[in-house]
Amino acid sequence: MSDQTPHLGGRRAADGSAGDADYGAVGGSYAAFRRADPRIARRISDALGDAASVLNVGAGAGSYEPTDRSVTAVEPSETMRRHRRAPLPPAVDAVAEALPFPDDAFDASMTTFSVHQWSDLEAGLAEMRRVTRGPVVILTCDPDLLDRFWLGRYAPGVIATERRRYPSTTRLRAALGGSVTVEPVPIPQDCTDGFNEAYYGRPERLLSASARAACSAWSFIDPAVAAAYTRDLGRALDTGQWDADYGHLRTQPFFEGSLVLVRAVPS
């Protein structure tokens, strides 16, 4: 049985989702589980500098979108656009690879947990650079650091999917050009943004189907395989094996996993 189910291969899904995940099918949990963590949000805000106008590409339901600046959001998925709430502005229906804005239209641009979804990474980043006068800021995961997280022991197909999808920081640097920095982002123990690594010290959360649905990598796993992964994790928790191996993480205030903040400014 395969770990992975077919994906979109660059075609837009029925609800408009672009890239390799269908958010019409998996987007319902995002508004509840993928709430911006204020500590991570501060890092993004600092990276945006004094930009007054910001473009948010792949904006989803609006996590990490600044409310103290003029923001234009772009989101191709109708499901995700529908989950945006006031005071966030409505999102423009467009894809990263074809942004409907003139050159140098924004002081800064940002994208969070999105670049791994795009059908053409280099085209999308070139478009962000084209429409942005100042910094381009990307919150993403470094695929070379995914093995720091214990989930690979219980759900190896999920980590393999993330490793396949997330672009390397070398590739991001090359595509962005200019002066590029890559900074690790420590994940807090009580992180309110429910991506997989946010549960490094709260493994029981990943027994919830809704929590897993808010992490798109799980949507690529055959349901029977995902059920087996969940049973294995649940058994390890019931027997105390998880705590014997990783219990120290329950009180560790931060985890430095694969989460990174990439910032590029023009030469």
Describe what this molecule looks like in 3D:
Helix content is 31%, strand content 14%. The protein has 267 residues and is α/β, with parallel strands linked by helices. It is built from 11 helices and 8 strands. The chain starts with 22 loop residues before the first helix and ends with a strand. The longest helix has 17 residues.
Distance N terminus to C terminus? 49 Å
Elements, N to C (H/E): HHHEEHEHEHHHEEHHHEE
- Individual helix count: 11
The biggest beta sheet is recorded as: 6 strands, mixed
Strand line-up in the sheet with most strands: 2-1-3-4-8-5
| Unreliable residue runs | 1-13, 23-27
Strand content: 5-15%
- SS elements, strand count: 8
If you compute it from the alpha carbons, what radius of gyration comes out, rounded to the nearest whole angstrom? 18 Å
Structural class: alpha/beta
Mean pLDDT: 90
Multimerization status: single chain
Shape summary: globular
Helix content: 25-40%
Spell out the key features of this protein.
267 residues, alpha/beta, two-stranded antiparallel ribbon, 11 helices, 31% helix, disordered N terminus, SAM-dependent_MTases_sf, methyltransferase activity
